[in-house]
Amino acid sequence: MTIKEMIPKDYTTTLVPGAHWSLTVRRGMQMQLTDIEGGANVGMLFYNPFLLSEKYNAPDSLKCQHTFKLTRGHCLYSDMGRIFASLTEDSFGWHDTVCGNSHPKHIADRWGKRDYQSDRNTWLQNGHDAFLVELAKYRLYKQDLAANLNLFSEVSADDQGRLALSRQSIAGDSVTLRFEMDTLVLMHNCPHPMSSSVEYPRKPVKIHLRIAQPVLADDYCANLCDENRRGFQNNALYHLGAGL
To answer: For residue range 58-102, what is the model confidence (pLDDT) as tens digits?
Structure first.
């Protein structure tokens, strides 16, 4: 067997409850996330691994696509006008990117205060600290945080504009991200900041990485709106000459 034959063509793992993880996902790969039991929340952030100051921009991602939710067809923009990833498949239909992270106070107020030193693996991690741990691996800090995704969580507003967590995914729901540029991905499996679950949610999420299909001229994400076409053009300029 050659070295090339030994290289896996895909990779599968499970993000256990309260866990956090980071990795660089290469352009042309896709990541499918599946809620195994239902009721999961996956926090996610993106950075350019070669220019770490370039990060996910939630306001631009919503504004330029004229939406309050993220679902199939939407693209995830950087603050440089480039596209980190596109949502190519989505069985849930609504993912939050306005409510941010759970913090230690959210967790303590809802489920009681626990820490790893006293409670070991039964402690209750929060999304904010989970991201800080992953950021530190790349010499990034609190000031480098941005508004994050909350996959598998739908929020709604009442007549007074007050937001609430209105729906979460059921067992088997999945979303697929196709990466349009090399991307440093940070993620955690911690509760949504508006979760009202009686117990701390412990919902595993399956992650499957594999090579994506090529982006064709009639690609649904690229042609969803004029802004996405410009975003793909910005990516094309960014990659001009790559691989020569």
So the answer is: 999 999 999 999 999 999 999 999 999 999 999 999 999 999 999
Report the distance separating Cα 225 and Cα 29, nearest Å: 23
- The alpha carbon dihedral of 133, 138, 141, 143 has a sign of negative
Asked whether the CA dihedral 148, 15, 90, 153 is positive or negative, the reply is negative
Tell which phi-psi region holds residue 72, choosing left (phi > 0), alpha (psi between -120 and 50) or beta: beta
Q: In what order do the strands lie in the sheet with 29-35?
A: 10-15, 205-211, 29-35, 174-179, 83-90, 75-77
Number of neighbours of residue 39 by Cβ within 10 angstroms: 19
Instruction: For residue range 39-60, list pLDDT tens digits in order.
Output: 999 999 999 999 999 999 999 9
Q: Which residue has the tokens 């000031």?
A: 143
Tell me the two tokens of residue 173. 């729901």
| This prediction's pTM | 0.93
DSSP character string of 172-215: T-EEEEEESS-EEEEEE----TT---SS-----EEEEEEEPPPP
Residue 83 β-bridge partners: 77
Tokens read off for 102: 């759970």
| Nearest Cα residue to 102 out of 36, 207, 18 | 18
